[in-house]
């Protein structure tokens, strides 16, 4: 008698799934060589939220939208109401201390106290925004580092980073948290101040319970076993959020699941194994660039990819797997694992979607909705949103 | 009796060395996150040439400047005269078929004949420029590829690439050449149409003697033994030019020799071994970004790094090395090799520089010249040159 | 009206598929740290062939077995008859010039003519074996290179390699071929004499039509787009054979499809695109190590993985894909591609298998057959086969 | 007035340097493809110690020798006396829980309590050895992990690892310590139980002050900034020891400084920056394989490489560097850093060596000593030491 879960067994679990969208995914993005614009690209945070709400409307998966400050600076009471009106909420607030000339050689780590203070203040303002929007998480990605050996005192920067983060941490209110993202390289090409999970972990562990690690799936050295890190951070109680995307080379920021769907499956398996699925303590966000594909469709495809891999991972016959693992039966253990991955859940998911009043095929529904044509016609004039690089 | 060359023995060889500077190195550059501007950045090709000429004036190493079209479009008769007046020549012409909206999904490889023809024509215009400037080489870097599996028909693109290159090849005049650069990834993140030396080689071999490979030292997969490729291309008679720079991670475009000076030494050793040093058939160019350092100083440091590693590589005791290699004496062979690398040639080079009427320390001389202050004061208003991304 | 193929449409194509097994996969293997032995491991080529035949009996996929000389030296008339009696044939002959003390510093590339001649002779003896076994292909993997900069004259070695290969090539008989494998690194850790497809290609292109490239899927730098190389070699008419396996890090030699099934799907898509599927000119071999899993099951799983991914790749709706590619519709093109990958063909394949008199689940059938228990009981005493390292 | 240190200024610092040799470096080693034997290779721990003592006699740098249990099992009172008689001491004790059939699927992490206990006991026996030899450090390298997704419960293994390490930790005596090594991959090819510094750090931090991290310079993902990790571990007070070696690809175990001398320089700079140079709390060990070069010469070259790079790193003009860093003067900071690296200290070191009664050129002295010929003649018969793989 099989102990393998059926689709019905797992419905409740993926039904509860929520994936947070990044407002900037709807703006233009590209490489240092070229940013291609596209008709209909939002010109302000309100239009970004509208696009995000469309993704949620068609998938039921994405009720929350992350903001990036200062890119999304506006009247946050209005924005909050606008979002609510469209059926979504404002979520994680992302700080930016890498686009001011003062930050050329660092922000929270800078040698100059004036600049450090400026960078700290920028974060405090983000917390002000959180107070207004009701956001829980302040996400900090530090684009800091150096390009040449000798350019920077890595040790001193690490100490200053701790001091700066402490000041920001102290400002966090009730129910607010800080998540610290790490990244292997870029925009710095010799050293990065928070290059790996170990650094992020030791920095946040030194602060307290409200500081956690943010794991961006594209921010690792080649060959890194990312699901191992997911396991470890869950074990240590320090996984605060995901930035999902996928990559073949560097921080490619492709649609999550596009480059290596099996890796996404393995990551979600460890999330489930560690009790992280649908945990209120972990934010599942996207952080992607849609350089060449339609941005709204790219977001829809991405949340569906996460949902599909979650469903597959939930189908693992855990009891049989454990038995095979204990027996040292490598082939059977791997077969059980792969069986779940290879099971095509798309038909079941489409049916389930329909049962919830959602379109069976959200991308087709988007195309048939005329939304893209509408925004292309409406959003004429003004400056398309982008990264401001 | 040692067979190791002395500094005097090698003087003639490095005295003949010429390194070509890229005009774009003097403009602003950065990452997709931010481009930092700096006082004194050139606003047009004439100012770029002036900065490049300063590098040559202080080092005697850089009599030629590569152009990038359309970034450097101007009156080329004037520019040629301007360069000559400053003691330098115009060199390799670099084409750009990656910044027009039409090229979003390819240029020379595009499915649409109209766009392919447009891209071919852009290259023909580059050859027109070469006719005006007297440049020998057309350098083609193809920023083409795809971001997602299934997005593109890689095979068809390869065939179309051959057709497009053939049409450009046919337009080459007497004494003109085409060099085809390869790159592992970026700006495309799934496939790149010319990703490795094998592809560049097979494409140019199918064209004829006037088509050669350009090796950019930053364009390889992690761990690639670049000096092996240098050896192989020299052996095959197909090494047309170098784009020198250095990297720790991806195409970081750091100053050549900065990340791994020993690698630069090994590359130049293979250039010497293969008869490529000071060969009229090989262009030794820089292709770098000075995102955070002074750009003119960055170029000076780079050409000096190439010169220093050339001098060290020339000091290898080839006779003793060969003997140790034949004897299978690994320790001695490696010791002989390292002995040359570890020999500090800087003092000798400074003396030699003085003997040629050049400053002993070109970077100090640049700082003392007041040139930077002068251009910062003069170059006010207008738009600083950059990549136009 | 969909243009997507049905399972019935593609049956003939995968029905013709043949995958060659390596005799050495049935012997013990491991790492430099430890080789674990297992009950039932073959002690001679005859027992290896018996195990391979079992794989074919249960899957119908593996009618041919590759040999490794000298590991499989024996009376080849007897071995040929033994194989035929078990329903399989002897296939590719693999040479070994890396386990004799003379080859410490090279074999076909060695500075010493005596050793080069010895290595050439070892290959001529392999061709003698081919004459006896009726094998078509001589597969050459060169474990040659150096560990330290300066240790070896890479250029001279490349020239000597050409000379040695020429002598071997000249001995090839009617209908015989040579395939030259490349490998990024290991057992040498600084330079490898045939490290990439470009080197293998240029070496075999210099020999003639009977020399081709062997692509081992585990022998590339991190991040390499392997399907691109498959495409390119097919385009150049120089893909002679595959060594299938999978990897997360280096030359891990895991079961093909285990590390990244989507990559295997993409590779087979390019095989189909390039006309290579079921081509008589391309040998589809496995080259794997089963360090911790049951070896016969490991081989069964591997050939099934290739078959499953072939079936999925054949399901791509090529017509619709081409249309989406031409339209620059990235999302649709990727969706069509992924749709085939995500389609679960396992049930259809099981039915088809049964229709051909094969077990629906070959691994279960193997377990129920009692074969493993039988060989564990029978193969007592003697020396278990391994790599003799 | 320059603030750059002179050679005289730094003499005391490098004079105090001690580098620990691994006993196994004198035995045979190789790859999974072949282990080449050489005349004179030790047959037992006593001969290994004799070879190690020769390295110390000629360099004055290596007064301590690390042992590997069970490879070096013998009468430790005799061995201690033997070492003392030759002027060296016994040092770090390395455990081995990867070569017993029981450990095929893990040792300290194994699902089966019996096997875990056996592995724990093996470590307790190592501490018994330490009690006899007076060694301070127990070094634990865990060759544990899995080859296939699904094969192992990574999370459970991490918990069991903690339990096992705790039991070993509790047995540590006064003045004894445990250092836990991490490694990116090999011999496992999907997951490794201690794959990165973060995991080693969090495991040892959970134990107490006597548990520290061991950093092997060859055990990182491609591109990893190792000096950053050195900095971080020193900052966290958890750097217990180094395993020095170098690599181009994976865990190549080449002579330290051979692959990238500039990287070694940067690592030692961070050691100095963090107060780790000549710290009694940090063991500076080699962990290398001399597959193709003379083993004793390989060890001499390695300790000299560390000494030379230490001397260069000590020559950095820290005051000027700090000033340039604070000023954001990238070119000057990098120049100051490189100036020390490029300074040829070999002549000064040779003179200093002579002043201490050591040979100017230890490798030449070794060759002239006749030691190698002597051991080749003497060590006939018996079994050459190796890894027993």
TrEMBL record, chains A, B, C, D:
Any GO MF annotation of the entry: L-rhamnose isomerase activity
Pfam families assigned to the protein according to its UniProt record, in alphabetical order: RhaA
Entry keyword Metal-binding: yes
Keywords, alphabetical: Cytoplasm, Isomerase, Manganese, Metal-binding, Rhamnose metabolism
Superkingdom in the source lineage: Bacteria
Transmembrane segments: none
InterPro entries: L-rhamnose_isomerase, Rhamnose_iso-rel, Rhamnose_isomerase, Xyl_isomerase-like_sf
One record GO biological process: L-lyxose metabolic process
Name assigned to this protein: L-rhamnose isomerase
Source species of the chain: Brevibacterium linens
